[in-house]
Amino acid sequence: MQTGVVAGRPACAIRRATRTVAVVAMLAALWGCTSPQALAPDDPSDTRPTPRPGTPAPSQTTEVVAQSPESLLMAEYYQRMQNAMLGNGLMRQDVAPRDAPYSRWQLVENFVHVALYDEYTNQNGRFVAGMTPSRLRRWQAPVEMDIRFGPSIPLAQRTQDREGITAYAGQLARASGHPVRVVPDHGNFTVLVLNEDERRAAAPMLRDLVPGIDDSSVNAITQLPASTFCVVFAFSQGSESRYSRAVAIIRGEHPDRLRESCVHEELAQGLGLANDYPRARPSIFNDDEEFARLTRQDELMLQMLYDPRLRPGMTEEEVRPIAQVIASELMPDG
Fold it and tell me: Structure pTM?
């Protein structure tokens, strides 16, 4: 049975989306317009239309269906959000900025908090934010990513996303030293690029992708609030700390820069860097939205995660002294 690291149930370890409610609230105040809460699918007052009956499942076909009015509204909303973040100097694309130095000690602290803590826990069938200690988790088998697009995703966007994800898989492989590649189908790490009604109708597909997935995990995806940009779920067998399956959800309505930032964070988190840590800088594993691409420090954390001196299932107490040795090798002058 596919079992996640949360509460030992056939659930997943939810790897948080890239954005916080605080950032969303700030942007809404800047716009003075539609609030994220008015669009959030878990809002009891939500009056948005339900997914259209018979919404096709994502496929590899070239057929494109019309984007729904609801999805078009979401696309406008996220374009405004991206514009506001860029206007405030966020979503930077430099990966080794001179204005964000870090020491060897900081690298160790950031690694421990990103790799050995969870951002969410499952409480009574709901995922609740709250950083909790965990164990080191990573893949043992090669990671094979297959990409599936909702039928309303334009062909040009599919091509752009496929090329970007393929290139990024190579970057993740080089940084971690672990095999990561994109395959045509039947991968163990599925990247779903879905528009709003496609995602809300995705329950049957999710149950097919991850046999034994529980209702709380399915609901977390199909009822994803608008304030959550993207998310990844990683699964293991039983009580193992080795991942065997992952599913990432990328909103198709995102404009290019925001979509790329989701890909960078969620796919890296799906390799085992599970948490967001507010003191990590420069890093995409930080909810302040300053950086949109995997930074050099993030690459070092991936290298540390897959160092053979560390093993899945290790606790912070076991990891920390080894991480200090590894960091001293990676940053001998730091």
Answer: 0.84
